[in-house]
Structures are given as structure tokens and as C-alpha cells.
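check these C-alpha cells.
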Amino acid sequence: MTAIEKIEGKLDKEIASFFKASKIDIHSKQNITYESFLEDKMLIIFAIRTGIPYSLFDLIQDYTPLSVNDWANVLDISTKSLQRYKTSPERHFKPIHSEKIIEMSEVTKVGLDVFGNIEKLKLWLNTPSYALGNLKPIELLKDSYGKEMVISELNRINHGIFV
């Protein structure tokens, strides 16, 4: 079992726990996995509005190729604020931050589907791309439009369409 598979197993348990503890009425609440969560827009909306708990963010942080500084930049908060969240694990992120956390999960999922491992994805994210205006893909992840451009480029790579 790879490190990513171990983290995915933990993510499955944490997502199931998050929705089990919630008061939302979901028919298949007990069968929610991390992957099924990322595919269900209604679950994502609920999670954003509820706020991602630090315990889930901590696992997502381990799953993604982003450093603590990258996360602080994407979430537009200081690394010190991230540390404060860590000291109170029951605390939930604000909806605006929760949305960014989920967006980075989506980028990571697509990137892993394309590149097969986290190191190749990390290299691609940190290499300027002609198709993205000679910017590093990671530089575009701060806003939703940039995230969509990055995912679109990953999909083009996956389908063999190179610029």
C-alpha cells in the first residue's frame, strides 16, 4: 500500500465521520468516501457551508503537493493563523477557506489521475507552462478562475493535447 493510498483511507474515514456528525439528511451517508465526496456537488456545498474541520484539512494537506506556505498563500491567511487552527482541532474553517481547501483537493485528484504520483504533479505545478501564460500552475491556484485553467490544462494533458 502506497503512502497516498494510506492517506486516502484516512480521508475516507474522516469524510464519513464528518458527514455522520453532521445533521444533513443523506441517504447513503454511511457510504461516503473521499472520492465520492469530490464527485457530489451537493455534499461539497454542504461541507463548504458547514466549514471544513482542521482534522480533515490536516489529512488533505498531507494528500496534496502543497507546502504550508503554499496553503497560506492559497487560503490568503498567514502561516501563524494556520498554526492557530492546528491548536484547536475542533475548529472549522470559514466557508471561503473551506471552498479553497476543496478546490485544492480537486486539483490534486485530477493531477494524480494525470501524472500518477504526487512528485510528478508537484514538479508540474512548479514548472512554468507556456499554455498558462508562462506562469507556474501553482501561481494560478489562488482564485477559482486560475484553478479552472489549471484543471483544464491537466485534462488536455490527460487527453494528449499539448500546446
The chain is about 65% helix and 0% strand. The first helix runs from residue 3 to 21. The mean pLDDT is 91.
